[in-house]
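Any chance you could type out a protein's amino acid sequence plus the matching backbone structure tokens because I've never seen that pairing?

——
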Amino acid sequence: MWPEPFECPQEPVILGLSGGRDSVALLRLLALHGVPMQACHVHHGIRGQEADEDARFCRDLCRQLGVTFAEYRVDVPAKAEQSGESLETTARHERRRILIEHALSVGFRAVALAHHADDQAETVLFNLARGSAGLRGMQLQRQEGDIIWLRPMLGIRRASITAWLHEIGQNWREDTTNADPAAAVRNKLRLRVLPALNEAMGRDAVPALLRGARLQGDVCAALDAALDALPLTDPQGRLYLPFLTDKPAELCRAVVLHYMRRCGVPNLSEACVNAVCAILPTQAANSCCNLPGGFRARRAHKRLFIESPASNRI
């Protein structure tokens, strides 16, 4: 029996397939439930022959299951050197970009990712330590711009996924860097911080972290619903700034954050929100500011709008 709770997608999806345990499990679960899909593998150009073998494994598995497969290659080390970002951050940005572009190119609007409950706990800790998102985790479903991000396994523990794959006789690829605490921040959280927290609490701390994230998610969902009901945008989808006149600063920040998320801006932080809020007054020295992912916020004619990376290159 497949691991529960599995939130089966109700529409065709692009699956981000790395070849690791979690994405392989999601591939098998989607196939088992008859979900129309295509698999997309991103070769980061980091791990040499090991990465080549990952791509070959994914291609062969999709062929066995009759799943359409697409492979993209990107030189993450070169892009990281150019941008000044870490390999981990650059790889994440490139995966996201490629998944979005591939989905739109084939007419899909949903992308399925293989994050599970233990990933969620790591995300909560990461966001708390970073200090920009509070007790916020990932969501089962979130729309950003034209893409809906789905995480059907977000309620399933890692151990259940592993046990199910063993039960059905399905192997997977192991990324050797995942076992190296020095390789990435999330590795340290998984290999050092969470075990130490479990020891300090005298129990498995993951359920409590998940519960906190769920409660915070309920609050955020309620706020999003309330903001969606307000006349915040004009017919062209631009944020109507006169609505924010004389509103509390806290509400203005919430509106700006909500608007940027709806426009698909990634990796938002308090600094991003504050930077955009600073350009809203008509007397502000600047009328535009840069945002993560190549996006840009611009104020004009009592409106705020977000320019996408594509429009910035025109």
Notes: Residues 230-312 form a domain with the Chorismate Mutase Domain, subunit A fold (CATH 1.20.59.20). The chain has a mean pLDDT of 91. The radius of gyration is 21 Å.
